[in-house]
Amino acid sequence: MAGYGDDVDMTELTLAPPGKAGSSSSKGRRRKVEEDAIYVKVSMDGAPYLRKLDLTVYRDYEDLIMSLSDMFRCYSLGGLEGYDECEYAVAYEDGDGDWMLVGDVPWMMFVSSCRRMRIMKGSEARGLGSSD
Asked: Rounded to whole angstroms, how far apart are CA atoms 4 and 68?
């Protein structure tokens, strides 16, 4: 088509009766994206709600901690080091059921082993971690 560059993909539009919206191919693509996602629940001590996030959208620990800080509207999340100075620390449960501090293992190992996360008081987090 005139006016379109080589980098533009054309998509097929399929019309369906009400209640049958969307083609099976788009549902297949959506399922593929969901299969690649790694969702974990995140709780924070004192917060009345949980959040669920996809770990695959984050590049590294720093990106994750910044996002958690925005989600829970707290500004003193610890996540990489220095838990003594931080009001909160981020811990995660791995596949073996052990709780560890976020940042203790390489990023990709964390993403593959994390089952859930908890933002806890920094004083409670002192006993966690691989350095103890």
From this structure: 40
Rounded to two decimals, the pTM is: 0.63
Q: Which domains does the chain have, with CATH numbers?
A: 37-125 (3.10.20.90)
Mapped onto helix, strand or coil, the DSSP state of residue 43 is: strand
- 11-67, pLDDT tens digit by residue? 555 555 555 555 455 555 444 445 688 999 999 888 888 889 999 999 999 999 888
Return the higher-pLDDT residue of 27 and 69.
69
Q: Which two tokens stand for residue 75?
A: 């500004």
Cα distance between residue 68 and residue 18, in whole Å? 39
40-74: burial string, b at 16+ Cβ within 10 Å, e else: bebebeeeeeebebebeebeebeebbebbbeebee
**What is the distance between the alpha carbons of residues 77 and 80, in angstroms, rounded to a whole number?**
9
Amino acid identity, position 11: T
Residue type, 129: G
Tell me whether strands 88-93 and 99-101 are parallel, antiparallel or unpaired: antiparallel
